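Lab channel / #folding
Pinned by the channel admin:
"Please post every new chain as: sequence first, then the C-alpha cells as a reply. Keep commentary short and put observations after the output so the thread stays searchable."

First post following the new format, from NK:
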Amino acid sequence: MKKLNLLIFACLLCSALAIGQEKEQEPQAGADLQSKIQNPIANLISIPFQNNTDFGIGPDNRTRNTLNIQPVIPFTLSENLNLITRTIIPIMSQPVGPSDNEFGLGDISLSLFLTPANPGKIIYGGGLALGLPTATDAYLGSEKWTAGPSIVALYQPTGWTIGTLIQNSWSYAGADDRGDVNFFYSQVFITKNLEKGWYVNTAPIITANWEAPTGEQWTIPLGAGFGKLFRWGKLPINAQAGYYVNLEKPTGGPNSQLRVQATLLFPK
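Reply from TO:
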C-alpha cells in the first residue's frame, strides 16, 4: 500500500509538470493565486493530499508511509476577521516489530486560526491546535486528547514567501495506560517564485517530544523541494516534491523523508 501511494503521487507530480508546461495562466491571476497557496492561512478553500515516506526507521531500516489529507476551509466572521480551519487526516502504514506493518487511520488534528481579513505586510494568525484519538490501532496514535496554542506569521515580498508556524500540544484526557503527550511542532517555510508557475522551497518540520529523555527529544530536518502551479481544465492544482534529511533525531527515528503533494484549489 505504501508503495502504491508513493507511485500514485509521483505520477500526479509528473503529470502536473507536463500539463503545466502546456497550460499558461494569466500573469496577474497566476501571481495572486501563487501567493495564496504559499500562505497557510489564506482565505482560500484547498484540499492538499500530502504523502510522506520516511526511510531508515529502526535497526532494520524500515519504511513508514503517511498520506495526509488536509482540507483547509476559511470562514468569514466579520468584515475584519476570518477563521481558517486546517484539518489533517493521516492514513498510515507503520512498521511493527521486525517485519510486520500496521495500516489504518492515525490521530486526526484540527487547527483553528483567527486572522485579520485585511492583513498588512506581516500576515499572522493565532488559535488552537486540537488532537483527536481517532487511530484505528494503538500503534498508529497516542490514544490521548490533546490541545495547545498555535501561531503562524509570514511575510510576502515580491516573489518570496518567508514564514513560520509554531504550536505545542498537551494531553488532557484519554487512555490511562498511555504516556502523557507534550509535543512541540514547528515549520519554517521559505519559497522563491520562478517563471511560469514554478517555484523552489524549503519547509522543514521541526519537532520535539518533551516527554522523551534528554538527547531523544528533537527531530531536525534539512532539505528542499520544488513545485509548480498549473490548471487542469479550470481547476488550479499545486504540485510539489521535496526531500529532507534528519540532522537530529531520536534513536530509531527515520533518517530521511520524501514529501510529495498535490493540492486542489478552489478560489472564489
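NK: The two ends are 35 Å apart (CA to CA).
TO: also worth noting, Residues 2-259 form a domain with the Porin fold (CATH 2.40.160.40).
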